[in-house]
Amino acid sequence: MALALVPSAAMAYGSGDYSNKGTVSDTTPAAGQSFTVTVTGPAGASVTLTITSNPASLPDSAITIAGTKSLSKVTNASGTAVFTVTLSQGGTFTLVATDTASGAVLSTQTVTVAAAAGTSGQLSSTGSNALPIALGAGALVLVGAGGVVVARRRQAGAAA
Predict the structure, then answer these.
(1) So what's the pLDDT on residue 143?
(2) How many CA atoms lie within 13 A of 80 on its CB side?
(3) Are 34 and 86 in contact (CB under 8 A)?
(4) 80 CA to centre of own chain
(5) What is the pTM of this model?
(6) Among 26, 99, 124, 145, which residue is least crowded by beta carbons within 10 Å?
(7) Which residues contact 59 (CB under 8 A, 6 or more apart)?
(8) Positive or negative, the Cα torsion across 87, 90, 96, 100?
(9) What is the phi/psi pair of residue 4, to 5°?
(10) In order along the chain (160 residues), what is the average pLDDT of each group of 10 residues?
(11) Tens digit of pLDDT for each residue in 102-122?
C-alpha cells in the first residue's frame, strides 16, 4: 500500500498548480530595454527568477532585475508574479523561474539581446592628431630663434 501512495504523494504538490509556466514579453529586446517575465502559480507561492548569461564572460552588471541578478517574489492573489528585467549588453540569457520552497523549475525562457549599434568592442577614438600642432610649434620656434639671431647681429654691427 505504501508503495502505491509514494508516487502520488511526490506528485501531489505542483502537478496542476502551474498551468502557465511563464511568459516573456519580448524575447529579443534591445540592449537596455526593459521587458517583463510573468510566472503564474498558486496564490502566495514564492517564485525566484535567476538569469544566467551566455557567454559567461558578460559581467553580472549587465543584468538588472529590479537591481539584482536573482529576485524572489510572492505571487499575488491570482497566482501571478511579474518581474521587470533589463539586460544592458548583447548576448543570450537564460531566465529560470523556480518555486523557492521546493526548488522545482517552473519556467525556462531564453532571451537574445543584440549588441547595441556602433559597439565593436573597441574604445572610441578621442583626442586629436598632434602632428600638425607639433609642426606649427616647431615652425614658430625656428622663426623666433631666427629673429633672435638677426637682432643680435644688428646689435653687434651697431656696437662696432
Answers:
(1) 92
(2) 8
(3) yes
(4) 26
(5) 0.56
(6) 124
(7) 89
(8) negative
(9) -75, -30
(10) 40 45 84 86 83 75 65 85 85 85 83 71 67 88 91 82
(11) 888 888 888 888 876 655 555
Cell 557567454 -> residue:
55
Q: Which pLDDT value is given to residue 142? A: 92
How far apart (Å, rounded) are the C-alpha atoms in residues 111 and 96?
Answer: 11
Fold classification of 14-113 (topology level): Immunoglobulin-like (2.60.40)
Residue with cell 502551474: 18
Rg (CA), the chain: 34
What is the reported pLDDT for 140?
92
- Tell me the sheet residues that pair with 112: 92
Burial 68-95 (b: 16+ CB within 10 A, else e): eeebebebeeebebebebbbebebebeb
Residues 6+ apart with CB under 8 A from 101: 45, 46
Please name the amino acid found at residue 128: S
